[in-house]
Amino acid sequence: MDFSSPIQIILYSLALLFLYALWRKITKKTTKTKKFKVPEPSGSWPLIGHLHLLTGQKPACKILASIADESGPFYSLRLGFNRILVVSSWEFAKECFTKNDRVLATRASIAAGKYMGYNNAVFSLAPYGQYWRDIRKLATLQLLSNNRLEALKHVRFSEIDLFLKEIHIYIQYFNYVNDEKDEKGGKRIGKLMKEFMYVSGLFVPSDVFPFLWWMNFLGPAKTMKRLSKELDSLLQTWIDEHKLKRINQIRDDGDCKSIEKEDFIDVMLSVLEDDFFGHLGKTSLKEQSLHALELAQQELDLKVGRERCVQDSDIEKLVYLQAVIKETLRLYPPGPLAVPHEAVEDCYISRYYIPKGTRIFANLWKLHRDPNVWSNPDEFLPERFLANEGKNVDFSGQNFEYIPFGSGRRSCPGINFAIQAIQMTVARLLQAFSFTTPFGQAVDMTHEGIGITLPKATPLEIQITPRLSSELYEY
């Protein structure tokens, strides 16, 4: 029997199938490269890429927002040897922090983390892995749980009481200065943290050109090393004080189980003694409208009055004050450029191919001002959170048009603590004092300085007047 014809047909068929598969692969790759390439602005230079676009005194979040206006809400930049993606819309943010949450869960290694974050051991900068999971478990269960926050509530309240008392005394005597906080390190830590925020926003050459690591004895990296030593020294002093207290307790009582946990350092020391691991990154408000401030004070007078101080139980009733805080964090999130994520493996965001090692920046400053989501997005309008537009928006990170504390597994675990502290501090301040600007001047909110938190370029000058009877300032 002659099998030559059938065999030839089979061979021809296989050859055609092979050629067809090869053609499909080539055309698919070509199509993907052309169709699914992440948009990139023009103007890339050899070696440095788009780095020159980020120079100058304008904050990076605003520069990147301007690029988004031309290139779209999801675009790519080349900064030296690094490829970064900038996310400026809630749709792409949702894709990043839901579908690709695990793939984008790690952090890029940068100079700030190396020199001021104990070689990226700080929780917010730690790479994704078992160490980070252990630290997050410690933070959520031992430090920031609802039970722990309730137990340490008296610490926050006493600090607010002292703060208001000092303001009241300063108003009365004007030249009064309390040096006690300097001795305790309160003013020193404030100064160091302010410098920390500033330096963290500066450009370090080795972050984009790793071969320039040898230059890290100069410029911002040098300042980072100095700050790290000063912060470490101050924090160690506080830890030693708490350790001494525990040693004295053991000497007097035989153990330290009965010692009162007065703050987070006490809690941490207690956890370390229990061998937790064996079992296993603020916020100041920038008021943009005196009218909103007056409305918040009217609400306080109506719901609380001026005969007593605001209590925890009052906050739920102060809906306009909550809206003021939400609107402030919309316009001025704690970090206008969220801490960058890095892809641990190849992935797709929407239809775009993202290779391993790509760094992703969520531009919250731009995302929160999306005109497709917010009407009059650049205006300070707390009322938007009382109406349909933002009535159901919260801080959980599930409303992707509003994520001041991030979203996904790398979101801030201290959201509840931060919101409780902000709400009570603002409520007590607005109840206790009236705030005006000298000669009715407008507050300059158009210029910001350099740093990761957008500090005001023009210092805020205000006049403060007590609103309560004198006995309510005595604690």
Automatic annotation (TrEMBL):
Necessary cofactors: heme
Predominant place of localization: membrane
Topology within the bilayer: Single-pass membrane protein
Keywords: Heme, Iron, Membrane, Metal-binding, Monooxygenase, Oxidoreductase, Transmembrane, Transmembrane helix
Protein origin, superkingdom: Eukaryota
Residue sites binding heme per the record: 412
The protein's name in its UniProt record: Cytochrome P450
Organism: Jatropha curcas
